[in-house]
Write a structure and sequence with these properties.
mainly alpha; 76 residues
Length: 76
Amino acid sequence: MFGNFLMKTMLQRQLKGMPKEMQDAVISAFEKNPQFFKDMMNEIVTKVKSGVPQATAVQQVMMSKRGELQKMLTGQ
């Protein structure tokens, strides 16, 4: 539970430049499926540790998960 709180807080900080509507959609998706986001973060960390630049790692993981993300963000 505490881990989810930390992840949510970190997510809110990362999203502060986004429109409020989009922030709410992302946070809602996280609350419904926190394990999915934890797995994504672990995948990003693994790529960064293997030498991939962080921005590239985030982009690669987001692209590989984009179908699932779109479904979560649109509420399907």
